[in-house]
Every structure is written in C-alpha cells, then in structure tokens.
Design goal:
single chain, 377 residues, alpha/beta, Phosphatidylinositol Transfer Protein Sec14p, five-stranded mixed beta sheet, four-stranded antiparallel beta sheet, 17 helices, 11 strands
C-alpha cells in the first residue's frame, strides 16, 4: 500500500512530549472508513502523520484538517449549473465552506470522532445551501440523534437477518431511473410484515437505505422523490407506533437528516392510512406540506412522475424485482462504509444538553392531545 503523508505543526512543547513518550514510531489504528493505520514521525519539530490508505479517500476522523486528497468537482454540467443556481455552490464557496466545517469540527469540545471527508460534509452543506452555521448545526444534530437512539441508527448491517429479510420483501427500494434528476425511493407498505416486525425495524430499514444513498453527490444536489404505495395498510401497521415512538422520531427528523426532500407521493391510500398521513402532515412546515401529493390511481401519479422511473408494475420498463436485486448488490458494496459510521462519537448529557432541549421544544406542545384524537374508521 502506498504511504501518503500530511504534515501538522505542533508547538515545541507538544513535540517534546511526543519525543519523551516515544510515540515517534507507534501505530494508531483508525476507523474502518478512515486510514488503516497511522505512524507519527518527528522531524525537526514537525509531527508528520504517515497515513496508510486502502483505496479510500477518507481522512482521519476528528482531525478536521486538510484532507489527504483535494476534492475535485467532476459531476456533469446540469448538476454543476443546478448547484450554482440553487445551492450557491462554486469552487470557491465549496473550498471555503469545507475548510470552515473542518475547523469547527476540530474545535468542537464534544465531537470526538467525525468524518471530515468532502462527500460526507457536502451532505450538510448542500442541504443547507452552503450556510456553514446551519450546516454545522445540522451535523451536530445528526451526531446527537445517532447517539441518543442507537436502536434506530447504529449497527445498520445489510447482513443483519431482520434487515436483510425486510429488504428482500421489497418494502423499501431505491429505483434505478431518476425523476427529473432526483433519486426515487419507493415504499410498498403491504410488503412490511407488521405482525413480525416493529416500528424500530421500519425506522432501521429507512436509516440503512438513506445512509447508503447520502454520499452520492448527484443525490445531494438534485434531492429525493418518495413514492409510497399505501395499498394493504392495516390496523396492524398503525399499532406498531406508540406515542413515545412518534414523539422521538419527530425529534430525530427536526433538521437532522441531510437530504433535500423534493416531493412525497402517496397512492392507493386506505382510510386508515389517510388518517395517519393527515396527522403527520399537520406537523410539517409549510414547505414540506406543499411537496406532498396524494393519488387515487397510478394514472394520476404518472402526471407528476416520469413513468420511466417507475417499476414495470407501475407503468415503467424495469421490474420491481430487478430493481431490488440491483439495490441489494449496491448495499453489499456499501456495507463497510455504513457500519463505519458507528465510529463517529459525540459526548452528550441528555439531561443537560442544550441541543436536546432545543429539539424537544421544537416539537411544540399539544402533540400528545392531537395523537389521542387520531381515530381510524
């Protein structure tokens, strides 16, 4: 393996400490998605970090310094134009924003380990249209909810039996073709066995699928379209969700997920599903409310979604099973990177953490009462 080096200047006192500690040739093992190993060498008062990579462009988590390899924008012209017009992104703003985020991560007293590679940080910058303060806030929230709810966001292993079985069922599948450039995520609730699995399983599958997609730069720029086939929705699906689940998942989605949600389509809506959807929609901000569409038939869906993006069973050209098979192969390739997200760590005290209190306040009052009024015919 090739050895690439990056230099960091420390104070003479720090260098002397390292000399006395005999760390000059020690090995430091990093996370799976960072370098495989690091060797510290002392040369004339400069600490030289010699990083052994294994084909990945990730830098040591938490350093917040300059990456081993500079980022280069290589996407097609349409994405470059959209990034500039909609996100205020150009080479200069991108470079400055990445540097500022890395510096913020390095100085944050509670963030102990965090990815600092460009694809990861650009998730947040592009979602927040290159507002660095808002991007940093979203990153902190993202790390916090991963820490608070490991049952939903950690150990997202595509080879986990329950997760693999739910994926195999075809409950949630990213489609092959794009809708106006957007990645399409298709869900079919009838394929989710509500008698066998819990709401936690459902959330974990969504977390697994979205984590697999979020580093893709075309997805970051163009955003996502969601299509939800609610045919087969039953009382068993409603009974999966306790009030605590609803409150906590609402806290998690408040400005924490670095994704551009552009359109959410629902079809074959049963009366029970309609009640639950209406309740959920009532809690959204006006922008997201305006991006929700409901249809009685697939033909109505075709008026707003490119038919070519849909599975063959819904008017497209490629079968749902073929799309599922290709996604499973993609998940296998992404497995190591997804599992490595668990190496990130932020120290939090849930009782005294201002950010947790702020997210709780954003839920507002009266949710419990509204939820109790939800009835299903």
């Amino acid at each position: 393996m090739a050895c690439r080096e990056a230099e960091f200047h420390y104070s003479s006192a720090c260098a002397e400490f390292l000399r006395q500690s005999r760390l000059g040739e020690s090995q430091l093992f990093l996370s799976q998605f960072a370098a495989r190993s690091v060797r510290l060498r002392l040369l004339a008062g400069v600490v030289r970090v010699c990083v052994h990579f294994s084909g990945k462009n990730y830098f040591k988590m938490g350093l917040g310094g300059k990456q081993e390899q500079e980022y280069t924008f290589t996407l097609p012209e349409p994405e470059k134009k959209k990034a500039l017009e909609e996100l205020r992104e150009d080479d200069n703003s991108r470079e400055q924003s990445l540097d500022q985020m890395r510096e913020w991560i390095a100085k944050h007293p509670n963030i102990k380990r965090c990815r600092t590679d460009a694809p990861f940080l650009l998730r947040f910058l592009r979602t927040k249209k290159f507002s660095v303060p808002q991007s940093c806030e979203m990153l902190e929230r993202y790390l916090t909810i991963r820490q608070l709810y490991p049952q939903w966001f950690s150990k997202l292993d595509p080879e986990d039996k329950d997760l693999a079985d739910i994926i195999d069922s075809g409950y949630l599948v990213p489609l092959l073709e794009r809708d106006n450039g957007r990645k399409v995520i298709f869900s079919c609730v009838s394929n989710f066995d509500a008698h066998r699995y819990t709401s936690a399983h459902m959330i974990r599958v969504h977390s697994l699928v979205t984590e697999a997609l979020m580093d893709d730069e075309i997805n970051q720029i163009n955003g996502y379209t969601y299509i939800n086939d609610e045919g087969g929705f039953t009382m068993s699906h409603i009974s999966l969700w306790s009030l605590t689940d609803v409150r906590n998942i609402l806290r998690c989605i408040q400005n924490t997920t670095p994704m551009r949600h552009k359109a959410n389509h629902f079809l074959n809506i049963a009366p029970g599903a309609l009640k639950l959807i209406e309740f959920a929609v009532s809690l959204l901000n006006e922008k997201l409310k305006s991006r929700i569409f409901m249809y009685k038939t697939v033909e109505e869906l075709h008026q707003n979604v490119d038919k070519k993006a849909l599975p063959k069973e819904y008017g497209g050209e490629v079968s749902y099973q073929e799309m599922l098979d290709q996604f499973k192969a993609f998940l296998k390739e992404k497995r190591e990177a997804i599992l490595a997200l668990d190496d990130m760590y932020i120290e939090i005290d849930e009782k005294n953490c201002p950010l947790v209190s702020e997210m709780n306040e954003e839920l507002g009052m009266g949710i419990e009462g509204s939820f109790k009024k939800l009835t299903v015919d």
